[in-house]
Amino acid sequence: MEPVTVDRVLRMILHSYFVLCILSVLSAADECVKVDTCTCKTSTRTINLHPLSANTGPRFTIPVAGSDKYFYNPCKDFTEGTSTGVVIQLQGGVYYVTGDDNTATFSGDPDLGTLTLSYQHAEGGIIRISKVKLVCMEGTNQLIFNEENPKLNYKFTLNTEYVCIPGSQSGLSTGSILVILFFVLLVVYLIAGILFLRFIRKAEGLELVPNYDFWTAIPSLIRDGIYFTLRGFKTESTYQKI
Hints:
It is a single chain. The chain is an alpha+beta fold. The chain is built from 3 helices and 14 strands. It has helices spanning 6-28, 174-199, 212-230; strands at 33-36, 39-41, 46-48, 60-63, 69-72, 78-80, 83-85, 87-91, 94-99, 105-107, 116-123, 126-136, 141-148, 153-160. The strands form 4 sheets. A 5-stranded mixed sheet has the order 10-11-12-14-13, with no helix packed on it. Strands 4-5-8-9 form a 4-stranded antiparallel sheet, with no helix packed on it. Strands 1-2-3 form a 3-stranded antiparallel sheet, with no helix packed on it. Helix 1 (6-28) runs antiparallel to helix 2 (174-199). The two termini are 40 Å apart.
């Protein structure tokens, strides 16, 4: 058994800091689970976009190039031209449905700013996908078209008060605080590790990086993990021929 020394205790402290950094990020994520096509719930609150829905027609209209436009009505399909859907594109005088309300799915954590509402529409063997990133912005309900990338994948940002924490005035959410804590602990871990390695273990160069062997081993560990998955989670066995 390795004797208990100051060197070993300091290494254990540094390793504990690193583990705490990782756990702080993992604990920050709180997936918003779908309740209906316009509502999702985290472990602490509910996101309800129903107040954004217009009774008739689209709530949002975004002009783009020339006469081209995008139309969006959260929570409810509408008809524009000859097309009916929750997201519709007008391009070159032709209307295309890029999302149906009954395909709505939520992903991400609203407290971390990663909440996304996704739709799709399939017609004639062609699938169009619309993704709306939901961002907290007090007193505002504004839709922005970001890009079509890749082709037939439409990306929007919806700045809305209905994603914000009730009663907050653009303050930091729990998730944001945990992410900040992660980076603070990470900086402390790196600085303390470098000082320890430099003055206690007299390390130089790349050896000053805490857990250098671990970081350099990550690519090979990822590679081995991929191979293991592709083999159906079976270990590779080799036998010597007799």
